[in-house]
Amino acid sequence: MGTLPILKAEEISQTIDAESFTVENSVLFSGPLATTSFTTHAKFEVRSPKRVQFEEGVFGTPQLTDSIEIPENVEVLGQTIELSPFREFITPLQDAATSVARSISGSTPFKFLITIDRAESWLLTTFLDEDLCISRGDASSVFVLIKEGSSLLPPTL
After folding, report:
1. Where are the beta strands (DSSP E) in the chain?
2. Residue 130 — pLDDT band, cuts 50, 70, 90?
């Protein structure tokens, strides 16, 4: 049995800026007709050498591609569906989606504050070396981060 290919996470990254005390998380998603990215930004305060407390966060608006490429076919539930016969009907949808993408991509990010009396979001680093960081967060989350360019990552093609 096949799966419905709605979205695929193409790239996941986190950038920590120790000078400005900010962290950026980003995910690049791709679907059968479009690619979009979602980014969050947060400010943090160092509480100890192993623990940081998040103070402010920003959810960025999705950044959609300017032009949506229509593939020759898509796979749905294990079956390949040929799209070329539908191109003349899909083109107006493609134009409308491109227009929506441009308007959404220019929207103001949603910003929220984590006030000190409610500040519950934290991150505790339990292992750190040159290539690898393992952290635990509130809500029982565990993060395993590998530094870009590390020999622990598989080679890119």
Report:
1. 8-17, 22-30, 35-46, 51-59, 63-64, 73-76, 79-82, 110-113, 122-128, 132-137, 142-146
2. very high
